[in-house]
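Follow-up to my post from last week.
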Amino acid sequence: MRNESPASGRRVPPDVVDVVVENLTPMVDGGRFMAKATVGRVLRVEADVFAHGHDLVRALVRWRQEGRRQWDEAPMSPLGNDRLAGNVVPAALGCIEIEVVGALDALATWARDSRRRLEAGRPDPLDAEIGAALLVEAAEELVDRVAPERVEGVRSLAEKVHGGLDLALLDELEAERGLLTRRAILPDEATTVRTKAVAARERAAFSSWYELFPRSASPDQDRPGTLQDVVDRLAYIEELGFDIVYLPPVHPIGRTGRKGPGNSTESGPGDVGSPWAVGGLEGGHTAVAPELGTLADFDRLVAAAAARGMEIALDIAFQASPDHPWVREHEGWFRHRPDGTIACAENPPKRYEDIYPLDFHTDDREGLWRELLGVVLFWVDHGVRIFRVDNPHTKPFAFWEWLISEVKRDYPEVVFLSEAFTRPKVMHRLAKLGFDQSYTYFTWRDTKWEIEQYFEELAHGPGAAYFRPNVWPNTPDILAKSLQRGGRPSFVSRLVLAAGLSANYGIYGPVFELLWDKPASPGGEEYLGSEKYEVHHHDLESPKSIRQVVARVNALRRAHPALQHDEGLRFRPIDNDQLVAWTKSDPSGSDTVIAVVNLDWQWEQSGFVELDLSELGIAEGDAFEAHDVLTEQTFVWRGGRNFVKLDPREMPAHLLEIRTLPPPPAASPATSAPSSP
Amino acid sequence: MRNESPASGRRVPPDVVDVVVENLTPMVDGGRFMAKATVGRVLRVEADVFAHGHDLVRALVRWRQEGRRQWDEAPMSPLGNDRLAGNVVPAALGCIEIEVVGALDALATWARDSRRRLEAGRPDPLDAEIGAALLVEAAEELVDRVAPERVEGVRSLAEKVHGGLDLALLDELEAERGLLTRRAILPDEATTVRTKAVAARERAAFSSWYELFPRSASPDQDRPGTLQDVVDRLAYIEELGFDIVYLPPVHPIGRTGRKGPGNSTESGPGDVGSPWAVGGLEGGHTAVAPELGTLADFDRLVAAAAARGMEIALDIAFQASPDHPWVREHEGWFRHRPDGTIACAENPPKRYEDIYPLDFHTDDREGLWRELLGVVLFWVDHGVRIFRVDNPHTKPFAFWEWLISEVKRDYPEVVFLSEAFTRPKVMHRLAKLGFDQSYTYFTWRDTKWEIEQYFEELAHGPGAAYFRPNVWPNTPDILAKSLQRGGRPSFVSRLVLAAGLSANYGIYGPVFELLWDKPASPGGEEYLGSEKYEVHHHDLESPKSIRQVVARVNALRRAHPALQHDEGLRFRPIDNDQLVAWTKSDPSGSDTVIAVVNLDWQWEQSGFVELDLSELGIAEGDAFEAHDVLTEQTFVWRGGRNFVKLDPREMPAHLLEIRTLPPPPAASPATSAPSSP
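User reply:
Got it. Predicted complex:
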């Protein structure tokens, strides 16, 4: 032996496992944040799993509730190009630990190589002995994981292989692949990579929001609305098909700096002020404005909604009017200017004289942050489980991460919606740190190109792991340009886009269904006579109302799992730039809805939409019915390319259910993917 | 004070910095591996840096040689959408620590807001006082970082601001932005995120390889070639313009199982065997085959190459012929079958009877791994600094990561090229763990679509951070299909594609320049009469040789920094599917080359290529010269859309230098970007 090697002093690393597990998804910022999941829904986990050389690998995905000992697991299946996928299904709310465990698969490698040698007519006489040993090992790895008789089956296969190998035996082995993927992987032969997800309840993933101003909910022209009027309005909202009723702040409104109609800095004694100027003599964030009613009224509203299977969502606006009790009791919670005055909210050159922002870095940070957490817990205590957070992007990220985790520790069912129409990176950070749902730029995505690009990104971009979009055609702050011309066709098309593209959506009513379309100023997006500063009375029975359309859209959403998930969105080619077409399918592939929207509010548009029949579970030559739930029309279609024509004066959109026709006598087998377990 | 808050017992997190730094690039697998950099070249570092609200941020990128105390730093500039970029320039070989440090920029925020208030005619009387204080603070942050008189300048600006603020003063401040970006950022106000890179020498990033079989380098028909013949061949290779001469293994070749011509399992006494069947009675991986010469001859070859500014690259093929000394001395380093025999190399149903693979998990792993490291260090000791590693993908990843880091610890100038034509994930893993350059799929990318997709991915995909492509039109193992028909036009177009698209490329000669195009079998990719098993003699002076074209292409590569970088590649639209057009620019934007290749070896093709004049530094209306270095033709072009026509029988490609014409009397200002510092 030569010993003069120039490397003789070098240290060699401890023995290593050859399998690589990398590019695990979902993974948010290398595990710094949690991916989003939903109780009872499949979370698809993928990873690249491979080794050097030609050996085959196998992998399991394992998961457990944080803090529990017991792991659940599922085998992972190859997708090609060394990528594997497996399904996690969270059983309970809260944080879930997930890991992918990969190892070499000596048995599968041996089976592949033996088959190649046999098929090439160059069998290796040692293959039987080697394979039998591997099968005995595999049987051990199955003990306590499958029924004992199945373990026995593998052992008897080992004996047969030992007796002599042929292609028939390898076929028999191949038929047991489903069983063999369930073998245990021992830690010392495995590479393990971890990620985390947080499982929310179903409504975080699928929800239909209806926003309204209680003070405009009065059926009586002579007085403003109250919380009791909202109770009376619930039947109407239920009929429309919404499940979340979201109220702007219900707290006392400040007098100092109170805004008049149209955001005027002048206000008279009859002016009601902006609900977002929170706090007055009557109390702050845990009080109910006397003009709306009492805390008991609020409790009754929550109960009445619950009785209908609906929920009340409250607005969290962490700011204070100059009259808020905090200003008197905790002056230090506000920013002071060099001249000693409290700084009002400002986005230069705009100033908001009726609002003081809080100083989240105040010396009494403990006091302030606890107080704010207390506000949320107060309303949780009054039965609220959904919060829409106003302007979260103007408060520190660390504050929200702390607040949301503190609330969810005891109430993991609470849902937070982030109202941030700001820079994309900021919106994504808020979603990462814990907001369950996020407002989007949908409100300003009007053209086919914009809509397709944006929803492709939302459904399939990297943010899909943690950002649940909630799309709104309008809000009290935004009368979108797309609604200011075009009347009913525009409203219907924006409604169908929102409700058909996104599992979470909302409208601000009744101004939406009543087609309010007048801006305060030309080119602006504020409503003329904005309800933010004025009380209105609405004629819900107005003949121009599109409430029937809204109700049909929401009914379709409830009936079709396809519309309750975002990941199954696929835009479809259609040869007309005024028509947007897409399909949505649920993860099991068993339910699909087709949508086509005419973006042109003036003219009839037509084109050929190209479908993927395999996605619809329809054989190439078969006819099928496309039933439009908006118009109750039924079209008989055949093949992947079908003609559509939409006249906006009648109905600017198709929302189509697929109804397969009875198969012809010599039917071809169904091509639809089987449902997941 | 109310104390009944339901949150009163909750803990509040320690105070936090509001700035987020995320999505730092380059970053490989969250910092598990190092990004690739080059000494003296700019490494562009980017990150998302932002805070909540409307405050502006600033950031620095800092870097230092691993183990050093002193940091270099550079300010980062906004790219829009909250992304910032800064340039790192490694000064020495080896690992570099890099960090991005982000903080709020109270001064810039104040300046922006003050300007908005002044412009809106609503000045805030306190702005002067606040701004003056911020400027005094900024001056402190500049002390010891810029010349004292510049610090004084900021102080006097503070005094002027204190005396009264107006737009002119804000303009003056804006003019000093370059200075102000150089302020220090204190750790307690900063968020810091780290990444790592490894700086290699220039030749790792820009190299032209020439592979040849020494035994086929004899000028004498009557005897095979030797290392001395390679010395004599250097002048020719230099004339062709290559800087790396890569030799297949030069070690003794085994007799047992020796392959005959055409990979025949039968060989006669006159057969020379495959150089990759390493090891015979005369020695193993540290010996020189007697038929090629001696170790002293090898040393002379290395010295002769160095004298011409060229380098010798050796092949690392970690496997053994049955006659290798290791087989006798370390039987345990090889895998044994149940019958006690040593397993030969196999990729079923193929078997390589002349090669035993090593068992990298042998019980004597320390002995084996050290021996292999010793092989590399032996050749380093003989002046070799570039290694092409044969089949690295059949050895454990952990082995290569260890070996490369051990070699580079003492010899950071060593360059490793990975010869892995295997699954993409495996090739990328090898690049991540330390290989400086990697073979690619270029050899099988023939159509315009394939070429554009693939090089887009190589130049701009996520792998660009760590994967340096080295592209080869041919290798001893691969006579690409694209070369088997079409003769000279095909060879020239593949050459121009390789050398013009990739900063690192190579050819296997002299069979390439002599247009060898006969496969061993129809549809196959092995060479007929492959040099892997036979000695050949080449007529370098053959009139069919394209050596002149090769020389011109390589000369252009040396003359133009644009061709020495991969990141500046941009494919250009051209309205003909047989024509591929692209530009390459160097990072400073001061040098650009235009290339157009006709993929059709039979017919003339023409089309209009669309250029981006701003990239070329040419004003819209100006004429310019496009000078073709292959044909010495010069075209006068004007505007972004110009006609090209390529007849493959003459020359199937343009390689165009831009020559601007003297400006007309009333010249518009040059639009070219300034050179980087």
